[in-house]
Structures are given as structure tokens and as C-alpha cells.
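Human: Respectfully, please carefully check these C-alpha cells:
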Amino acid sequence: MDLFVIRHGQSENNKLYAETGSRAGRTPDSELSELGHEQARRLAEAVREDRSHLDVEVLHTALTHRCLQTVAPLADALGLEPIGRTDLGEVGGLYAAHPATGVRRPYPGLSTQEMHDIAPSLTLPADVEQGSEWDGGFEEEHAEAQRRAAAVLDDLASRHGDRTKIGILTHQHFGQLLIGAAVGIGEAGRKFELSNSSVTALRHEDGEWRVLWVNRVRHLDSDQINA
């Protein structure tokens, strides 16, 4: 199985941090910035023009606003119906932080109607009922995200076998954990550069994972590449 880990385009929160160095004013479920929409469009256009850029047969996606906005044009270019998953969200899940104390509290995600407004062909996961909203996947402990990353890899390997090409639209930090879990380095931290709308390729064969490439952004101009 070839697994392509795709990061969403630049979000408004990413833009805020790049401009201010602060998370003050962040939103719990940020939308794409103008640049993020362009990055998503460029990725989809590259795939439409040359399928070998991201030749996948199945496309999974996180349910955050920015991931759905990124996956919608990509799925259209691929001619695939993206499969929503509650286990591909960012480390920590959706949260709102108290402005004075910084204490995090869970924050709900999009409703199923809002998800389909963004990505009309989205297949809802079994654990999100039609007409309800995603709970946001809040996590208290970092170890929960590490276990989640390992479980995602195990699930994909058992579900799809070694012959399928899978794309997953996810987040920067969780993407780090997926790579770390795959190659057995435990807590990957931020050891890998995963730019917005980048593609990283892993291969699962004969029970083992290996990295094919990391952070491919050849669909972007140099001034469109950001962390």
C-alpha cells in the first residue's frame, strides 16, 4: 500500500501565527486563508493535469473546516468521493482556550450539513450521524494522539492491504505522528517539514513501512510555500 499524507492549505490560524508569532485571536476550527485556497486549487489542478502527481484510488479526510476546504477540489480532480474520518484531526482536537489562563476546553466541529456544504461528495463516517455535528475530537493528553496515529496506520493496512494507493488529508502535527509511527521513531516531534498542501509518501509492504518522499510541493510557486 502506498499512503500519501496531504496537509491542508494555509489556514487563517496559520496566517495569524506567521504574521504575529502568537496564537492570540485564533479560532477553534479555522478556515483556509486566501493563500490556502490557492494552494488547494493548485494541488487539485496539478492532479487534474497529471494524475501521477497524486495517483490515489481512495481518499480519506479529516473533518475540520480547513481539511474539507482542501479536499473538495482535490476530490473533484481525482473523481473520488472523499471518506470522512474522525481520527485524522489535529493533535489535541478542536478546542477553545481561555484568554487569561490558556486552559483548553472542547469545541464542537461542523454539522453534517455544513460538511456537505463544503464538500458535497463527502461520505460521512459511521460515528457521525446525519443531522448531527462532529464532537471535535478533543484530546487531553498528547499520548492519545500518538496512539491514534498508530491505530490509523494499522486500520489502513488491514483495510486496504498492500496493493491500494491511499490519500489522507490531515494536519501538520498529526502528520508528523503518522510518519513517526510508520518508521518506528516514536514521538516524531517536528522533525519533518510538512508545508501547507504538501504531499508525503509512505509505502507499506511485507509488514513494514518506509518513507518514499517528504513534503513534495512542486505544484506551488516558491512564494506560495510556507510552513
Notes: Helices lie at 12-20, 34-49, 65-78, 112-118, 142-160, 172-183.
